[in-house]
């Protein structure tokens, strides 16, 4: 509790324009913020980014702190929000990113020719799909259009395209697994 009162004093002084007090406060808080982030964040890869975001937020909103109230809960709320933001960023990013493995991306000429030969059954299976499913799979998967773009090009709703793509993939899988 004594530490909290010291932080309150330093923050009040920083709000009044004391740069030295603000420097002491930040120096004292960095390990505390790291510890708070570490409790909720798994993996050190982006943890330091979250710590920095929390410290930047602390700097940006320091004028909102009320020195008559405890400091640590105010700080913990800021850190908690930055951790949640970091988790949302990580979730969105991991949905789009894949690990790059240069060795897996390198094929010999023989492997490339084998893959070219293996594509023919897939081409035949796509050609055998009903017209709506074939168009949906060509637009969304082969031409890599977004659902909105494919919807505009085909005249089908986004929902109908999703269903058609799902059914096409299921039909292709069944046909190719035989």
What is the mean predicted local confidence, pLDDT? 83
Low-confidence stretches: none
CA-to-CA gap between the ends? 70 Å
* Structure classification: mainly alpha
Order of helices and strands: HHHHHHHHH
> CATH top level of the largest domain?
Mainly Alpha
The CATH architecture category of the largest domain equals Orthogonal Bundle
Strand content: under 5%
Q: Level of helix content?
A: over 70%
Number of helix segments?
A: 9
* Total count of domains: 2
CATH topology of the largest domain: Rna Polymerase Sigma Factor, Chain: A
Strand tally is 0
Shape: rod-shaped
**Multimerization status:** single chain
Rg estimate, integer Å: 28 Å
CATH superfamily of the largest domain: RNA polymerase sigma factor, region 2, helix turn helix motif
Largest sheet: none
Entry summary:
This protein has 178 residues and is an all-alpha fold. The chain has nine helices and no strands.
Provide structural commentary.
- The N and C termini lie far apart (70 Å).
- The mean pLDDT is 83.
- It is rod-shaped and about 75 Å long.
- Helix content is 78%, strand content 0%.
- The protein has 2 domains: 2-96, Rna Polymerase Sigma Factor, Chain: A (Orthogonal Bundle), CATH 1.10.1740.10; 111-177, Arc Repressor Mutant, subunit A.
- It contains 9 helices and no strands.
- With 178 residues, the chain is mostly helical.
- The chain has helices at 2-15, 19-40, 47-60, 71-96, 102-105, 109-127, 131-142, 147-154, 158-177.
Which tags fit this structure?
178 residues, mainly alpha, Rna Polymerase Sigma Factor, Chain: A, Arc Repressor Mutant, subunit A
């Amino acid at each position: 509790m004594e530490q909290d009162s010291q932080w309150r004093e330093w923050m009040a002084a920083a709000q009044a324009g004391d740069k030295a007090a603000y420097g002491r406060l930040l120096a004292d808080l960095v390990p505390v913020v790291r510890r708070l982030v570490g409790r909720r964040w798994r993996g050190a890869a982006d943890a330091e980014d979250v710590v920095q975001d929390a410290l930047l937020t602390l700097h940006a909103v320091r004028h909102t702190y009320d020195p008559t109230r405890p400091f640590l809960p105010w700080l913990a709320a800021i850190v908690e929000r930055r951790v949640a933001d970091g988790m949302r960023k990580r979730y969105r990013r991991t949905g789009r990113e894949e690990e790059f493995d240069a060795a897996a991306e390198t094929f010999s000429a023989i492997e490339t020719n084998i893959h070219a030969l293996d594509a023919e059954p897939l081409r035949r299976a796509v050609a055998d799909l009903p017209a709506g499913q074939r168009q949906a799979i060509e637009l969304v998967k082969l031409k890599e259009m977004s659902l909105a773009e494919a919807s505009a090009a085909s005249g089908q709703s986004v929902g109908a395209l999703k269903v058609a793509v799902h059914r096409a993939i299921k039909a292709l899988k069944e046909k190719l697994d035989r």
